[in-house]
Amino acid sequence: MMSHDICEIYCYDEEKVNRVKQQLSSISTQNMVKIFKALADDTRMKITLALYQEDELCVCDVANIIGSTVANASHHLRLLRNMGLAKY
Questions:
Q1: CA spacing 20 to 30 A to 44: which of 10, 26, 33, 71?
Q2: 83 contacts: CB under 8 Å, gap ≥ 6
Q3: Is residue 74 one of the residues assigned to a domain?
Q4: Structural domain contains residue 5
């Protein structure tokens, strides 16, 4: 039986590869990495989804939604704001 997840012969589409490499070189992937790291945290993802649903929530609302202290919610909101994922 042949496995379908590996290539039997190594070859690639040079035109496609060069096009994608050029496009990627103009994108700051480091900023994307920071955003994904921020959203990889379950609490911050919940806050982001809550803000997406309600558009505007105060820190007390957020604390109640995530079941934490106001200080903890504030910490997460500050990180999200610094990443450009939440507004003041």
A1: 26
A2: 34, 35, 38
A3: yes
A4: no
Per residue in 2-22, pLDDT tens? 556 777 878 889 999 999 999
CA 30: distance to chain centroid?
12
Calculated CA dihedral for residues 24, 82, 66, 42, nearest 10 degrees:
30
Q: Where are the alpha helices (DSSP H) in 1-88?
A: 14-25, 29-39, 42-54, 59-66, 70-82
Model-level pTM? 0.69
Cβ contact 84:52 at 8 Å: no
Range of 46's domain? 33-88
CB 38, CB 45: distance < 8 Å? no
Residue written as tokens 């096009």? 19
Within a domain: 73: yes
Q: What does the block give as tokens for 63?
A: 């604390």
